[in-house]
Structure prediction request, 308 residues.
Amino acid sequence: MDTQPAQGATPQPDEITREVVDLMANLVALFHREYEEAAAARSLTGAQAKVLALLRRGPMPMRQIAQTLSCEPSNITGIVDRLESRGFVTREADRQDRRVKLVAATDTGAAASEELRESLNFAREPLASLGPDERTVLRDLLRRMLTGASGPGA
Amino acid sequence: MDTQPAQGATPQPDEITREVVDLMANLVALFHREYEEAAAARSLTGAQAKVLALLRRGPMPMRQIAQTLSCEPSNITGIVDRLESRGFVTREADRQDRRVKLVAATDTGAAASEELRESLNFAREPLASLGPDERTVLRDLLRRMLTGASGPGA
DNA sequence: CATGAAAGGTTCACCTTGTCAACTTTTCAG
DNA sequence: CTGAAAAGTTGACAAGGTGAACCTTTCATG
Prediction:
C-alpha cells in the first residue's frame, strides 16, 4: 500500500481529483442516458431495469431491494407492482417469515434483463475508444475504487 | 437474438469489456447517489443542481439547457421555475432575439453550485482509494472515453 | 400463554422529473 | 405582408421518490 497524502477527509482538493470528478460526472451522465434508452427500447424504465437486474442473482425481499437501491421500501412497492402487472416478476411469500415477500424474475423478466445487459456491452460507445490493455487498466482501477468504498452490495 | 452480431467497433463482447461495464454501472450508481445526497444537503434536487452546474460558464437559453441535458424544453421550464422561485437563477430576455430567455445563476445560485462541487471533491470516497499516479491514469482514460464518444457538450 | 414492541409491506398524500400536444410570441423568408 | 419556423410556456398525464399511517407477522418478555 502506498502512503497517501490524502487520508480520510481530504485536506485539499488537488487538481487531478477535481478533473477526475468532473470527467466522472460527464461519464455518469452519458452512461445514465444510454442506460435509460436501452431500457426504454424494451419498454422498461430505468428503475424497473435496475430492479430486474438485481433479481438476476435470485429472488430478493422487497426491503433488501430498497436497501440496495438506497430508497424507501414504499417506492419499491410501486415499481414491483408495474413489473408484476407486465409479467416480469412475481411476488411470493417467504415460508420462513411470512412478513417477507420474495420478488423473483419470471423467464420473460430475466430474458429482458439479460438482453438489456448484452445490448449495453455492444452499444457502449465510450469503451470502444480504448484498447484491450487500457480496458484492463481501467477495470483494475474501477475495481479498486469500488472495493475501497462502500461495497457494491449486489 | 441468439446470433451474436459482430457489428460496429466491437467484434465480440470480450470478458474485460463486460466486467468494465458492470463495474461502471456500480460506480455510476454510487456516484449518482452521492450527487443526489450532496444536492439534497443544500436543499436542491439532482436536476436542479445539474442546471445550476451548467450555468457556471455563463447564462444559457432554455433550449440549450434542454439539449445539453437531453430532455424536452418543457421540462426545463419547471426546473427553472423552482430555481427562480428560490432566488438561485434569473430569467432575462435576450436582446438579440426576444424569443430567447437567458437563464443566469444569481450569486446565491453560483455559490451553492460551487459549494456542491467542492463537497464532491472532498467527499468522493472511491477516489480516495487511488494514489496520485493512478488518478492521473484514470483521468487520461476517462478523457479518452469522453472525447471518443459523443461530445460531453458542457 | 398473553401482550406489546418491532419488522416487512402496503397505502395515501404529496412533490419533482419527464413526456407529449397545443398554444403564444417573436423572428424571418418570400 | 403573410405564413412558416423557432423559443418558451401551459396542461394533462405517468413514473419515481418521500414520509406518515396502517396491517400483518414475528418475537421477546412478563
